[in-house]
Design brief:
By secondary structure, the chain is an alpha/beta fold. It has 11 helices and 15 strands.
C-alpha cells in the first residue's frame, strides 16, 4: 500500500447529545467535520477547550457513533468494528486509562500477547526510557511516567494508525523529546499518526497537516507551510505579519498610546535598545502608518525585521472572536 494512502477519513461528521423531548433539546458537539489523515504523516487537531477535538477522536475510533456523516478508519466503519480492525489501531487516551495496581512491564507484556506481531517490547522500553520504573506499580508513577507507559501500550501492537490525545502532557523536556523522536520513527515506518495538542509549537514541529477546530467545526486546515504562508490572502488582504523593531531610546507612555497599531514589548523592560513587536502588518498602508508614527515621535529604529508567522499566530487569528 502506498505511503500516501488515506488511513482515516471523516466526511460531514456531526455529533449531538440530548433528545428532542428534553428541555434543552439537542446540543451539537460536532457540526460537519471533514478530515483526512494519511500514512507516514502526522495529522494534528488543535483548537480551544470545548472545540470538539476529543469528540472527533472518539468518533474516529468508533467509541462514539456520529449523528450523521461517515467515518472510514483503515477503510472500515469503526463503529462496533471487530477485533481485526481494533488490532490495527493504537489509542493513547489523555487520561491514560491504565490499571493502577499493575506494573508497567507486566501490563505491556500482557498486551503484547494479545497481538499476532507485537512491537519488540525491549525496543519500546529503550525508545521511551521506561527501564527505571518497570517494576513500580502504575499508581506510584509520576504523571510523565504514566504518559510514557500509556504511549507504549498504544504502540505495543505495532499499529498501522495511532491516535495520541495530548501525548506530551506532563512530560519534562527530555521525555518530550523522546516522544517526538518516537513519533518521527513511526512516521518513517509508514504509520499514520493523529494527535491533539494544546502546545502549538509542538504541532508546528511535528505535524504534516493541521486541522483547527472551533465550536465543533474545522475553520482552517492545511500543511504548516500553507497555514503560515505570509503571502496567502484572507478576505482580500495579505495574512498579518509580525514586524519587530529595536528602539534606540526608551518609549514614553504617550508615544506608545499614539501608535497606530498595537505595539508590544518583546524584551524584559522598556529601555534603550529594547525590541518591540507590531503583530498586525497586513497591507502597505499599515507600514505607512507605522513609519508616520516613527516620524511623529522622532524615532529612527536601530533595527527592523519581519518575523515568520507561526502556527500560534494563525490559531489566534482564526479562533479568537
Amino acid at each position: 500500500m502506498p505511503s500516501s494512502a488515506v488511513c482515516l477519513r471523516l466526511a460531514g461528521v456531526r455529533y449531538a447529545v440530548g433528545t428532542a423531548s428534553s428541555a434543552k433539546g439537542f446540543t451539537e458537539i460536532l457540526s460537519g467535520v471533514d478530515l483526512t489523515a494519511r500514512r507516514s504523516e502526522v495529522t494534528a487537531i488543535i483548537g480551544p477547550n470545548g472545540a470538539g477535538k476529543t469528540t472527533t477522536l472518539s468518533c474516529s475510533q468508533g467509541l462514539l457513533r456520529p449523528s450523521s456523516g461517515t467515518v472510514q478508519l483503515l477503510g472500515q466503519n469503526p463503529w462496533r468494528a471487530g477485533a481485526g480492525l481494533r488490532a490495527r489501531v493504537g489509542v493513547m487516551l489523555q487520561d491514560g486509562g491504565l490499571p493502577q495496581s499493575v506494573r508497567p512491564r507486566t501490563l505491556l507484556a500482557h498486551i503484547a500477547k494479545l497481538h499476532r506481531h507485537p512491537w519488540p517490547l525491549e525496543d519500546l522500553i529503550t525508545r521511551l526510557d521506561l527501564s527505571d520504573f518497570l517494576s513500580t506499580t502504575i499508581r506510584r508513577l509520576s504523571g510523565g511516567q504514566k504518559q510514557r507507559v500509556a504511549l507504549a501500550a498504544a504502540l505495543i501492537g505495532d499499529p498501522e494508525l495511532v491516535f495520541l490525545d495530548e501525548p506530551s502532557a506532563g512530560l519534562d523536556p527530555q521525555s518530550r523529546q523522546l516522544v517526538f523522536d518516537l513519533i518521527g520513527h513511526l512516521r518513517s515506518c509508514g504509520i499514520g499518526i493523529v494527535l491533539t495538542t494544546h502546545l502549538l509549537e509542538e504541532a508546528q514541529q511535528l505535524a504534516d497537516s493541521v486541522y483547527i477546530l472551533k465550536d465543533g467545526a474545522v475553520i482552517r486546515h492545511g500543511t504548516v507551510a500553507e497555514l503560515t504562508d505570509s503571502t496567502a490572502e484572507q478576505n482580500g488582504r495579505s495574512a498579518p505579519r509580525r514586524l519587530c523593531f529595536a528602539s534606540p531610546r526608551i518609549l514614553t507612555r504617550d508615544e506608545l498610546d499614539a501608535a497606530p497599531l498595537p505595539v508590544e514589548l518583546d524584551s524584559d523592560s522598556n529601555r534603550a535598545g529594547a525590541r518591540w513587536t507590531v503583530a498586525a502588518i497586513s497591507a502597505p498602508a499599515d507600514l505607512s502608518s507605522l513609519t508616520a508614527w516613527w516620524e511623529q515621535i522622532g524615532l529612527f529604529p536601530a533595527e527592523i525585521s519581519f518575523e515568520a508567522r507561526t502556527l500560534e499566530d494563525v490559531f489566534w487569528e482564526v479562533s479568537v472572536p
